[in-house]
Amino acid sequence: MLTNVRSDRVKSVRSLSRRSVRERTGRFVVDGPQGVREAIRYAAARVDDLYVTSAALERHDEIVQAALEAEIRVHETDDAVLEAMSDTESPQGLLAVVAAEAATLDDVLAGSPRLLVLLSHVRDPGNAGTVIRGADAFGADAVLVTEGSVDVLAPKVVRSTVGSIFHLPVVTGLDVEATLGALASHGIRTFAADGVGDTLLPDVDVSRPHAWVMGNEAWGLPVEVRDRCDEVVRVPISERVESLNLAMAATVCLAASSGATRRV
Amino acid sequence: MLTNVRSDRVKSVRSLSRRSVRERTGRFVVDGPQGVREAIRYAAARVDDLYVTSAALERHDEIVQAALEAEIRVHETDDAVLEAMSDTESPQGLLAVVAAEAATLDDVLAGSPRLLVLLSHVRDPGNAGTVIRGADAFGADAVLVTEGSVDVLAPKVVRSTVGSIFHLPVVTGLDVEATLGALASHGIRTFAADGVGDTLLPDVDVSRPHAWVMGNEAWGLPVEVRDRCDEVVRVPISERVESLNLAMAATVCLAASSGATRRV
């Protein structure tokens, strides 16, 4: 059992809460039973190590068994070690170190995607995570993220995807203009979601391949990005409400695309 | 200008971050320009005091003018005083103390509501605030909150409604069984939103008055509550995703009710 909170191993795992360390090592952390379970189910080959407290070992036996069957190294730790490894105060007893996957836009486009989300300069970890979870729930083929956005492998983002980060490709570091060009050349229509849009969500044709383009939480999408999209789409809301937040708007648009709210 | 961070006034405002103080005094705090602006627009008679830093006084002149026209007491403060009054580290220069409104279920029902949300044992401030914002955006007539839920006048909830808390009645402290009974006797159909539901969201009849019933973040709705609702409704999502979070599910259901995603 690992009991030394000052060990190099603990320091090394804990350092993955820093973006620079994640980028240098190509590793990130997922904690909590749901995220760890999905990592083992969908990305076992990328899981380096699983750290489990004694209590979690008992409580989440099926997760630990799945890890052992996948030949993942499982380490029992005391509570203090797991807490020291995690950036959250209540890491729920399970934490895995996972190798990042280098998904590319070309890979995604080669799969003839029907539904995509492009996040442009999204900064809030909770928003990014919720959009990834929503994209997964509503059957998107991938999430595309521009340069200048939050790191999707940050612990808070990974945590708020509740495992969805392992279900679909998330391509990062994209140039927004080049990405819009690539989508257009592959016949994927682009819908900028923005409160200034002329097209109302119920009028959008979601039957053909399309990508929702979502802007920054505070300033939305720059006009030059909106202008390059095929449509600028507004979710119809009450006049007294200034806007939906990013995660809500993305969720509603994705739900509409998937047929979760209407037969398509 | 108020400059003494240790004054009784500062302590008194700061103490409103505690539920017991809010309940005893019938007052709560709203901070940030959007929330304060909506408080003055929609509930000026309930705003006791407005505190503004010098920078915000210049930047948000139209809000301050509206407050003065409504005969609200406006106090200039230095940055330290405003920070000491607020429970957030970046209160954006504006903070108002507002009297709570005692909305009742009877008042709401007397208005022949067409769309309601009932939150049962919802605990997370961000979720509660986002649902109130979504209810407002999608034209709900009121939000109903059961006993055992987060206090909707807590600073984090108020902040995440971004002013919506002043746009529609929020009735709190309700007994879930009694509320479901009252809704039924007023001809309001009740839809429990739950992943176990037999009815899919696209099949729900949203043309008649109805209430969405949302359960706790972790354990959902107790079976006896689900059984008392007219329908148990599931948002259709990918099989690999265990659930939507509460705020996402509520947003999608409310959007469907409002016709934001389909013509109704």
Automatic annotation (TrEMBL), chains A, B:
A Pfam family recorded for this sequence: SpoU_methylase
Record-annotated RNA 2-O ribose methyltransferase substrate binding domain positions: 29-104
Entry's Gene Ontology molecular function annotations: RNA binding; RNA methyltransferase activity
Keywords recorded for this protein, A-Z: Methyltransferase, Transferase
Matching InterPro entries: Alpha/beta_knot_MTases, MRM3-like_sub_bind, Ribosomal_eL30-like_sf, rRNA_Methyltransferase, SpoU_MeTrfase, SpoU_subst-bd, tRNA_m1G_MTases_N
UniProt-listed GO biological process terms: methylation; RNA processing
GO cellular component: cytoplasm
Keyword set includes Methyltransferase: yes
UniProt key word Metal-binding: no
Family statement drawn from the similarity comment of this UniProt entry: Belongs to the class IV-like SAM-binding methyltransferase superfamily. RNA methyltransferase TrmH family.
Protein name: RNA methyltransferase
UniProt organism field: Knoellia locipacati
